[in-house]
Write a structure and sequence with these properties.
The structure holds three protein chains of three kinds. Chain A is 68% helix and 9% strand. By secondary structure, chain A is mainly alpha-helical. A two-stranded antiparallel sheet of chain A has the order 1-2. In chain A, helix 2 packs parallel to helix 5. Helix content of chain C is 65%, strand content 0%. The chains are: A mainly alpha, B mainly alpha, C mainly alpha. At the B-C interface, helix 6 and helix 7 of B face helix 2 and helix 3 of C.
Chain lengths: 140, 495, 113
């Protein structure tokens, strides 16, 4: 059955970027407020799923040529590497560190190693969610 | 020395599993990577064993939080011995897999699956936090789901649905039980729970929680009324996976029961430990019936897992020095010997092409070495001195007599005979009698299958012969269970 | 409040057991989902339902909700999310392979003959 997707596709082109921006906002907000890598990752994944709904798997995979399994593995590696950094300093695993820096444009900000860990979580969540969606939807 | 040493047996397999996920199709690199990972895990475990032996219990609280608030990881003698033997089994299973599991599975995350599972198993043995134990259980279960369906044969799909369903329900029960425990004691740190349980003095609620924990871990560890799912699920996947599951997964449940029943639930022993004892004897009986009832080699050995679980838990339920030491002895013996037996019957199945005993026969002519190795492993399983099962069973029975549970001890002794009978049936049917038509394996393939099994049997023989030398280690392990105060002190410091 | 929650949890468990005892695989999976929801709600209830103290600490707040049950629930939700997703994929695959989603037809029969 051929359906007319013009409205969905046009809206998606707009909405997709708003979702991605919002997910990045949520991801960074997780530093001191509700949010973080997990929610941000789910939002990004939902943006990509919207693309999948509006177009089809082939189009999306040419637009975003990402191997999601590799993405999951890299995310796990980033998370583990952050946690394992503490091994070098001979403090208990998962011990985080932070300090304040004066960044150009942004002013005084605190940079925290938990951020790196959250980046790993973000990648894992996007990778796992998309792997699941793809493996269910691959036969259509 | 390094503070994080006790985490290495968990981190190393995890790290290598992620690396191996990046290039699933390069089979040769996968094999090398898996062996490298397991080799370094083994080195880390041996170093840790030495450190625990010389410096006592190792504990660390993640993220530099103070002890009862952060997640504690604790490595005492019991857990490091189990970590070490799990790693050894994983090495042999991987070695055996090279020539048996097949390229299709190898290129679909088989080795990462094994490594993730080892991460979960080692983590569950090491953790000192009850909710973290749930998380590690889930890690090992998720990887076991992958391993059990890998290949996607019809039997595997059908059985894995039941396997997953049972485990999802038991995980939900685990969460519920932890929630109850948290509402009563207000902490998740196992050492702290032990202290708080003694303080609050609410035996009724604690006993309910103890029985719920028995239910949760009993589902994983296959005790009497809850073992129904195990035989058919374990028979579905290929032999190396079966060996890994049979040697390790139920033992994690057994370890969890031993840990919780010696650390938390020591107040109302006349109820909880009595219940554990009755269930363990019923487990032995049920396992014996199953082991004699089937003509399928896989099923016979699988039911022997259930018997072993019963024997170990009987030892744990007696709560005296001899029986607990016997339990630890028997636990590690069973990990080694079950791994060896599954690999051996894997060789038999590969030669005859069937797992039905009635269609086998006369293998001793073409494969004498295999026959005699199997016989030694079978004697070891039944506990014939000086092989590995003997010391453990002797100590458990001695502990049973000391606690004046004559009937239980007699059941253990009688079960040895049934075990011997059940494994000798395999020997008689498969190796004696009229030779049947078999396709001879190529020399290289046969050697690839048989060598790991042979070496593993050799290790189990050494474990039995050298048990005198192992006594100090086992003594330390049993000591922690008898005097949990050492464990508590190592985690919470001072006080 | 706790009493109401107890009934809700009990109802969730009841529905979960009912669904898991049915023959259709899809209903069983939905049942496991409900079971884990019930378990998560139970953690929340067991952590104490105060309701007045804020969950997020901001400057000036001294009395805040116990963060541990929330952390436990988040962990448990993530895990059950993963398991349910895996279970759904497996159900779909086995429906293709075995041609049925009726558990009665999925009994182990190969070794009985």
């Amino acid at each position: 059955m051929k359906t007319n997707d013009v409205i969905l596709q046009t809206t998606t082109k707009l909405i997709f970027f708003i979702i991605i921006l919002f997910s990045i906002h949520i991801f960074f907000a997780g530093h001191y407020a509700p949010g973080g890598g997990f929610v941000g990752g789910l939002l990004t994944a939902s943006g990509i799923v919207l693309l999948l709904l509006a177009y089809d798997i082939k189009t999306v995979s040419t637009a975003l040529p990402i191997n999601y399994t590799v993405m999951t593995a890299i995310g796990l590696l980033v998370a583990l590497a952050t946690a394992a950094g503490s091994i070098i300093f001979n403090v208990p695993f998962f011990t985080h560190a932070f300090d304040y820096f004066d960044l150009p444009l942004l002013g005084k900000q605190s940079l925290h190693t938990a951020m790196l860990f959250d980046t790993g979580v973000y990648l894992v969540v996007v990778g796992v969610t998309m792997t699941i969606i793809q493996s269910i939807g691959a036969d259509d | 020395m390094m503070t994080n040493l006790l985490l290495f047996p968990i981190i190393i397999p995890f790290f290598f599993a992620m690396i191996l996920m990046l290039f699933p199709k390069k089979i040769y690199a996968q094999r090398v990577g898996a062996l490298l990972a397991l080799g370094s895990t083994l080195i880390a475990s041996v170093t840790l064993l030495y450190k625990v032996k010389t410096d006592g219990i190792q504990a660390i609280t993640l993220g530099s939080w103070p002890a009862p608030f952060g997640i504690s990881m604790v490595s005492d003698m019991l857990s490091i011995l189990l970590v070490l033997s799990s790693t050894v089994i994983a090495i042999f299973v991987v070695w055996y897999s090279f020539s048996s599991i097949g390229k299709a599975r190898e290129s679909f995350f088989y080795y990462p699956g094994i490594l993730f599972m080892l991460t979960g198993v080692n983590g569950a043995f090491t953790t000192g936090d009850i909710f973290n134990m749930f998380v590690f259980f889930e890690v090992l279960l998720m990887s076991s789901y992958l391993l059990i369906v890998l290949g996607g044969e019809k039997v595997q799909l059908r059985e894995s649905i039941k396997y997953i369903l049972v485990n999802v329900i038991s995980s939900a029960l685990f969460v519920i039980t932890v929630a109850y425990l948290y509402s009563v004691v207000g902490t998740l740190n196992m050492a702290d729970i032990s202290v708080k349980i003694a303080q609050i003095n609410q035996p009724g609620i604690i006993t309910v929680i103890a029985v719920l924990f028995l239910l949760v871990f009993g589902l994983k560890g296959a005790i009497f009324p809850l073992f129904f799912w195990l035989p058919s699920s374990y028979a579905a996947p290929p032999i190396p996976v079966l060996a890994l599951f049979g040697a390790l997964l139920t033992k994690v449940g057994v370890y969890a029961i031993m840990r919780t029943y010696t650390l938390f639930f020591t107040l109302d022993q006349s109820f909880t430990h009595e219940l554990l004892m009755i269930l363990s004897i019923l487990t032995i009986v049920a396992g014996c019936i199953g082991a004699l009832a089937y003509f399928d080699v896989k099923k016979i050995i699988i039911y022997n897992i259930i018997i072993a679980v019963g024997v170990i838990l009987f030892g744990a339920s007696q709560m005296n020095e001899a029986s607990l030491m016997g339990s630890v002895f028997y636990l590690i013996h069973d990990i080694l010997i079950k791994g060896a037996l599954f690999l051996l019957i894997g060789v038999i199945i590969a030669i005859t092409g069937t797992s039905d005993l009635r269609k086998m026969g006369g293998l001793i002519r073409s494969y004498p070495m295999l026959g005699w190795t199997y016989l030694i492993a079978a004697f070891g399983l039944a506990g014939i001195p000086p092989l590995s099962g003997f010391v453990g069973k002797l100590l458990i029975v001695q502990g049973g007599f000391e606690a004046e549970n004559l009937w239980g001890s007699i059941f253990i002794l009688a079960s040895s005979l049934v075990v011997l009978l059940s494994v000798m049936r395999i020997f008689i049917y498969a190796f004696w009698g009229e030779p049947v038509e078999i396709t001879l394996l190529t020399k290289k393939h046969y050697r690839g299958l048989f060598t790991p099994a042979l070496v593993l049997v050799g290790i189990s023989v050494l474990y039995g012969v050298g048990s005198e030398w192992l006594v100090p280690y086992m003594n330390d392990a049993a000591n922690v269970m008898i005097n949990p105060s050492q464990y508590i002190q190592a985690v919470l410091g001072g006080s | 409040m706790e009493i109401v929650m107890c009934f809700v949890i009990g109802f969730l468990f009841m529905a979960a057991v009912y669904l898991m005892l049915s023959k259709s695989l899809l209903r069983i999976i939905i049942g496991t989902g409900l079971l884990s929801h019930g378990a998560h709600l139970l953690i929340l209830t067991m952590g104490g339902l105060d309701g007045s103290s804020p969950p997020v600490v901001s400057p000036g707040v001294t009395d805040y909700a116990d963060p541990l049950p929330q952390a436990l629930i988040l962990t448990a939700i993530v895990i059950s999310f993963g398991v349910t997703a895996f279970f759904l994929v497996l159900a779909y695959r086995s429906y293709q392979e075995l041609g049925t989603d009726n558990m009665n037809l999925m009994r182990g029969t190969e070794d009985d003959d």
